Amino acid sequence: xxxxxxxxxxxxxxxxxxxxxxxxxxxxxxxxxxxxxxxxxxxxxxxxxxxxxxxxxxxxxxxxxxxxxxxxxxxxxxxxxxxxxxxxxxxxxxxxxxxxxxxxxxxxxxxxxxxxxxxxxxxxxxxxxxxxxxxxxxxxxxxxxxxxxxxxxxxxxxxxxxxxxxxxxxxxxxxxxxxxxxxxxxxxxxxxxxxxxxxxxxxxxxxxxxxxxxxxxxxxxxxxxxxxxxxxxxxxxxxxxxxxxxxxxxxxxxxxxxxxxxxxxxxxxxxxxxxxxxxxxxxxxxxxxxxxxxxxxxxxxxxxxxxxxxxxxxxxxxxxxxxxxxxxxxxxxxxxxxxxxxxxxxxxxxxxxxxxxxxxxxxxxxxxxxxxxxx
Length: 375
Prior knowledge:
The protein has helices at residues 10-30, 42-51, 72-79, 81-95, 112-126, 147-154, 183-194, 225-232, 244-247, 260-265, 284-298, 304-321, 327-343, 347-351, 354-362, 364-372; strands spanning 58-63, 99-104, 132-137, 178-182, 202-209, 215-220, 238-242, 249-251, 274-279. The chain is of the alpha/beta class. It has 3 domains: 10-194, NADH-ubiquinone oxidoreductase 51kDa subunit (Rossmann fold); 202-279, Ubiquitin-like (UB roll); 284-372, NADH-ubiquinone oxidoreductase 51kDa subunit, iron-sulphur binding domain (de novo design (two linked rop proteins)). A hairpin with a 5-residue loop joins β5 (202-209) and β6 (215-220). α1 crosses α7 (183-194) and α4 (81-95) crosses α5.
């Protein structure tokens, strides 16, 4: 990831020179897409927010980073916050927003004083009349990674998702158009505006689990899994990998090229490129059980399928792990996970069964091992 010059605000100046339409055309031409998992075209999202008639617009930086196994936003805030702030200001200039917010994860509160200092340093030199950036401390809720729940939290309400449409870009904070982007996307926007050689193919990967070299690394899309494993340095023979809680669990294929298409072929989701490596000493049912506990705790409770379904998934996994499970429980678990995903309101419920469905598909022997203990 390229780092902008600390004091000159060259990306913002170039954005002013290009104008709103010029910047949007540039981002479109360079192929910048969101880094949060949905991979929606950034220029299209910014244009929709800008062109929606309103007396006020807002820009929100999602720095909640609640996905287990993901910690790249923390790295950017700690070491490259100036570029992030410049990306926020460019977004504000493009869409015509005066008030900007950084929704900072509660566990990242130790980063707040330094971030506040950098805002105080950069903002006066930006010469954007009336533009402000306010840091809002999150309460540590995973659900607030979801854009509409995050916006409700900023407005002072309990963080629960809202029905869509309308989308935040047309009706967000206080009913006005609101541009929501995560830390990496906004940072990349500033880089894409300034650097002619900016590479849209590069991604930040958060690597963790049963490896020696846990950390954040930059790889191009399509990198071989073997190259990532060489960097990660597993402690023992690898058995599986999880793409965060919502991404699912699949076997390790060293010959796989890491692209959304290749990952989704295993019925997993690549998300924000976090990979948790699982070695052969683990039973995947135990991993699924741990993820199920997380979802049960983090469900906001607004919709019945997620509120009740996450608990029932957890209880079924608990039964299987206790040795009291029967063969029919596996089919019931599969059907329950599918039902919760198909009927839940937001992405939390719609993905909370991925770890169950993919582990049942790829590691049935681990479930059978627990059933066999009953005999």
